[in-house]
Design brief:
Structural class of chain B: mainly alpha
Number of helices of chain B: 14
Distance between the termini of chain B: 48 Å
Radius of gyration of chain B: 23 Å
Radius of gyration of chain A: 26 Å
Helix content of chain B: over 70%
Order of helices and strands of chain B: HHHHHHHHHHHHHH
CATH class of chain A: Mainly Alpha
Order of helices and strands of chain A: HHHHHHHHHHHHHH
CATH topology of chain A: MetI-like fold
Helix content of chain A: over 70%
Number of strands of chain B: 0
Largest sheet of chain A: none
Oligomer: heterodimer
CATH class of the largest domain in chain B: Mainly Alpha
Largest interface: A-B, 95 and 97 residues
Number of domains of chain A: 1
Number of strands of chain A: 0
Strand content of chain B: under 5%
């Protein structure tokens, strides 16, 4: 017993002096361990991104055999392309609303449902279920509610609120609002999951100390809870930005971009230009613009939000 | 006293009220699965009592798009997981153990893929897959999903590996085991909680995805359950009752997975989100 321990001791010491690098990971393990995964990622995620930049400088079209270099013509064309410009505006409006609404509701619901009682555990599950449903399924459930003779109008009529009946998908503002409502319904639970985990991590002593000092209610939220859930705010905000920018299923299925392009966001427009018109070059230019916006906005969000995070 | 009591009851009451409102679409989807189509139109909110029927589900299950859709979704989901789980676990092991600048840069390079909207890379992906003769095949969709979700899995695994002692690697190395043996025999089994999270979440994402199978598999060549629903409701114009039946069949597998593994689901989302 003693022998084996004394025999191991110098080994352990030698390792720790070499900045804890695992002894069995020599240089050849880079290709053998990381290699296959990296090849897959580079081949089908990174290379496509590079190619998107390359295609955006061409007039590549599936329908013509010839592909020519056109420089920045595709980008110049976007400046006067009204459909594209509207899609940018639609994306901006929807994303802004989607970043705020599920985030705020998710926090409210997390505050409301945090706690160990069985009732809250059951209710939490209700909010989680929409996260696991397919966007396609969610789209059709809501479509059945939002159409002219759908559930929402029927119920409004039955409870005597007939004057609030709407063609929810027929006018631009209500159509955008409907899509945002669907996204809010599906992603509120996700935000709540992240906020619940953050709330659970707040040390109990901190809450008790605050209570002893008479710091309760809104002041306790403002001074203790809010700063301590700041990292969760960062995560949810960044993820919701990304979600908003790539929103596709709802706008494809519920409104198909309508009415009059009012819900035709960049993601759907890239799909239409690329796969309906087969204009790969033009669609790639739009994809590069989308990428630049996503990269810029999410980096800015991370930098700005990280600044106000504190350690518990 | 009464003020205190009402304040104590207010929160659970509010919680139930908000939850009921929030659950309304779920309730609607569920009750209408078991009602005939005309009852769905006239009384969408009524529970199925005298007119209770399972015809919607049985009819939906007979649709060929649903049958082949469920099969295809299962093949693609399982295939993508079988490919992605070992590859991402190995990448994460390298990153967490090598501790070099290359490893840190590799992590950043992968993280960058986490925020990439699929629409940005989808067009070139189809060109690459066409060159490999994998367009309109299961393999094309599987490879696409495995590549696209790899960064998330690496992220979860790398976070988990921080809590797995390096002494285990060293013990294995001293015993003369190769690094592969150490990884597969000792480390990978220890990563089971992280694997559970990765499997649950990525299974949900691949099962539910709509855009990639729509383009890469192509409706003319085969449907997953999501593209199948889209086609069934759009093109075949099935009745309202069957529509809800189809949606139930599409959702049962993910709901079952979620309810069985809820713990791993939540821990995966929070680990993927909060670490790093």
């Amino acid at each position: 017993m003693i022998d084996s321990q004394s025999a191991r001791w110098p080994v352990a010491r030698r390792r720790s002096s070499r900045k804890a690098r695992s002894p069995n990971l020599r240089f050849w393990t880079v290709p053998s361990f990381a290699g296959p995964g990296v090849v897959l990622y580079v081949g089908l995620v990174f290379l496509p991104l590079i190619l998107a930049f390359a295609y955006s400088l061409t007039d590549k079209n599936l329908l013509s055999a010839q592909t020519g270099f056109v420089g920045l013509d595709n980008y110049r064309g976007l400046l006067t392309d009204d459909v594209f410009k509207q899609s940018v505006k639609v994306t901006a409006v929807m994303t802004a609303l989607i970043v705020v609404l599920p985030n705020a509701l998710g926090l409210g619901i997390a505050l409301m449902l945090s706690g160990e009682t069985r009732l809250y555990a059951v209710l939490r599950t209700i909010f989680f279920i929409p996260i696991v449903l397919a966007g396609v399924v969610v789209s059709f459930i809501w479509q059945a509610m939002l159409t002219d003779y759908g559930v929402i109008n029927t119920v409004l009529g039955e409870i005597g609120l007939g004057r609030f009946q709407q063609g929810w998908l027929d006018t631009p503002n209500f159509a955008i609002g409907s899509i945002v409502a669907v996204a809010t319904w599906q992603y509120t639970g996700f935000c709540a999951v992240i906020y619940l985990a953050a709330l659970k991590a707040i040390p109990h002593e901190l809450i008790e100390a605050a209570e002893v000092d008479g710091c309760t209610g809104f002041r306790r939220f403002r001074r203790i809870t809010w700063p301590l859930v700041a990292p969760a705010v960062t995560i949810n905000t960044v993820l919701l930005f990304i979600t908003g920018f790539k929103l596709f299923d709802y706008v494809k299925i519920i409104t198909n971009g309508g009415p009059g392009g009012s819900t035709n966001n960049m993601a759907l427009n890239i799909y239409s230009v690329g796969f309906t018109q087969n204009a790969f070059g033009l669609a790639s230019a739009q994809a590069v613009v989308l990428f630049a916006i996503v990269a810029g906005v999410s980096s800015a969000a991370v930098i700005l939000l990280r600044r106000r995070e504190v350690e518990a | 006293m009464t003020a205190l009591a009402s304040r104590g009851a207010l929160r659970p009451l509010l919680a139930v009220l908000v939850s009921v409102l929030f659950a309304a679409p779920l309730y609607l989807a569920l009750v209408n699965v078991f009602k005939p189509a005309d009852a769905i139109r006239t009384q969408p909110l009524a529970p199925p009592l005298s007119d209770f029927t399972t015809a919607n589900v049985t009819n939906a299950a007979q649709l060929s798009v649903v049958q082949s859709g469920l099969k295809t979704s299962l093949i693609i989901t399982v295939g993508a997981l079988l490919l992605m789980v070992p590859l991402s676990a190995m990448v994460a092991y390298y990153i967490s153990r090598a501790d070099t600048r290359v490893a840190r840069l590799l992590m950043l390079f992968l993280l960058f893929g986490l925020m990439l909207p699929p629409q940005v890379v989808l067009i070139p992906t189809t060109v690459i897959l066409r060159h490999l003769h994998l367009m309109f095949t299961y393999w094309g969709v599987i490879l696409n999903f495995a590549a696209y979700y790899l960064p998330f899995a690496v992220f979860v695994y790398a976070g988990f590996l921080r809590s797995v002692s390096r002494e285990l690697d060293e013990a294995g190395a001293i015993d003369g085991a190769s690094s592969f043996k150490v990884f597969w025999r000792i480390i990978f089994p220890l990563m089971r909680p992280a694997t559970a999270s990765v499997v649950v979440i990525v299974a949900l994402w691949t099962w539910n995805d709509f855009l990639s199978p729509l383009i890469i598999l192509g409706a003319a060549h085969g449907v997953t359950i999501t593209t199948g629903i889209y086609l069934a409701i759009g093109a075949y114009s099935i009745d309202y009752g069957q529509e809800f039946g189809v949606m139930l069949l599409a959702s049962l597998p993910v709901l079952a997975l979620f309810l069985l593994l809820q713990r791993h689901f939540v821990s995966g989302l929070t680990a993927g989100g909060t670490k790093g």
